Amino acid sequence: MDVGKPAVAAGSRHSQQDLRAALDAAAQRVETAPDSALADAERALRVVPGLPPALFISAQALRRLGRSAEACARLALIPGGPRRPAMVLWEHAQAASEAGQAGTAIEALEALTQVQPGVASGWFLLAAELRKAGRDEDAWRADLSAVHAASRDPELLKAAAAIHDGKLDEADTMLRARAERLPNDPVGTRMLGEVHWRRGDMAEALQLVERAVALAPGFDLARDFLVRLLMQLNRLPDALHHAETLARSPVKAAGAELILASVLVRLGEQERARGIYEHLLEMQPEQPLLWQNLGHVLKTLGEQGEAIAAYRAAVTHQPSLGEAWWSLANLKTVKLGAEDIARMEAALGELAEGKGREEDVFHLHFSLGKAFEDAGDAARAFEHYDKGNKLRRTLIRYDADEFAADVDAAASTFTAPFLAAMGEGGAPAEDAIFIVGLPRSGSTLVEQILSSHSAIEGTMELSEMMTIAARLQSRVDEGEFADFGTMVRSLTATDRRRLGEEYIERTRVHRKTDRPRFTDKMPNNWQHVGLIRLILPNAKIVDARRHPMSCCFSGWKQHFARGQTFTYDFTEIGRYYRDYVRLMAHYDAAAPGAVHRVIYERMVAETEGEVRRLLDYLGLPFEEGCLEFHRNTRAVRTASSEQVRRPIYTDAVEHWRAYAPWLGPLEAALGDVATSYPEVPGALLP
């Protein structure tokens, strides 16, 4: 023990050795028998008052006996001030912290971190004490210094390497062993959270990363990870809170503002997001991704001219940025010309030489498909759409047989007798209007018409119902129930009410007005009509349907930012459409009148009559504003954002026929669904 020399003022060499041996033995018993160690140290102090090793051991013992203030007093007697050994400074800091002596703790820890700047635990404790003292910015910086010090910890480096190499079990074992020794280690806790995230265990990952942030509020990397986890779990208000906190970090990083903007976009706070992107571009005007993100926001806000300029700035700075080209092409009212085609073909040539990503390649093919389509060259347009779809299909997982089995399970569960047997239940709220169907079916048009009514607020494609459904399905996947039907039958009236209230509460963040009704335009919710009926029996469900050839071809040549994994193969999208028609026909039979169907071709041909019938179903009076939906300035995020800002047009009804020579596989997959439309073929009726 190097805490000063344990020499005695008088006595023999033998007594010095005895004293040293007694103190060494006491030091060994501090953790297991602090009262005995304290007695031995006290005896030594009676022999040699002020003996540093004896003061140190007595202080250690006193702290472990819960007498931290006395421990501080003993430690203060050890000479050397800030130049005392690191072990003395660490003990003094902990004792002062436990005794509520923040000033003393801070003084000791500031000295300790100067002596040992590479030891993370000292910085973390300093941050905690600074925070207690109200010095939040200094505390934040201390946490950041702690994380920097931890980045050189050999044990953590080894665990990080295992995670990087996909050896998650190995990393898990190392990090759990570390947690046994250091239960309050923020960095190890965050890393263990990452292991669980990579395994797909979102609940455990979230709990661990939240703990890491609670232990070290200035741990910016952990908070950034937490925001991303919360976004994945669709806990957007919580994500916003942490993103705003991250943006206030004393160590400014553009990434913090970018993630804040991403959360704002998800929440529909487009103007705030726009301000962030414009601010960042003032400082970094040559950043193509910033221009691209700004373009997305401007498109949603209906600022088409500015959106076009932003996307063009993005491809000017990075000609191979496929998503920006596709975003430009995806403004359905924009036509890409010969110069654009030449630039995109040149970019594809560069990417073929290994200078870019597959994501850029398939985006460019979709963009060139749209450009040649605008030029009236159907053959070359189809060639590029086909290449883009085939490449995209290799990068995603989708099993049409597995999906059909899920539809079978829903159909066999939600029968008329089953719904009658379940009886009343669910949340009584009438707020929600679900607009379901396939993408590119005219659902955005329906939403725009409805959101032009004074009683209805248009939100966006909300994922809350799909999240609830996935959580219920996970109970089957994890073996709690034998099958989907058994799980649904287990839901009590109270369960169903709670789930319905959860949906209403979770979607409240997307509602910006006091209108009593709101739309949820997630098309995939057709899969969950039965669940909606159980948990929100008073909700309205509108099925937007379009000719299967037109709808499926339009979906196939549309690249979706996320989801809709069935759209990249003609056979798969055709089968998906048949499954959709089959299940919706089943629901029509099980609960007649529960779903109102809007046929796209009728809506564009007889708009007022169809709008009146739709509003009658919703129990709302007709308003002329619904026919002037194109004047509605609300933000629209879907692929049809620009089309719904125009009056009704019929151009798209027969658009697919120009590509008929290549659509044989789609026709074959659709079968009699295409020839019977809009009626349901007998083979699909329950």
TrEMBL record:
GO terms for molecular function: protein-tyrosine sulfotransferase activity. It comes from Novosphingobium sediminis. This is Sulfotransferase. InterPro entries: P-loop_NTPase, TPR-like_helical_dom_sf, TPR_rpt, TPST-like. The keyword Transferase applies. Pfam families: Sulfotransfer_3 (PF13469), TPR_16 (PF13432), TPR_8 (PF13181). TPR repeats lie at residues 186-219, 288-321. The keyword Transferase applies. Transmembrane segments: none annotated. SMART domains: TPR. It comes from the Bacteria. Keywords: TPR repeat, Transferase.
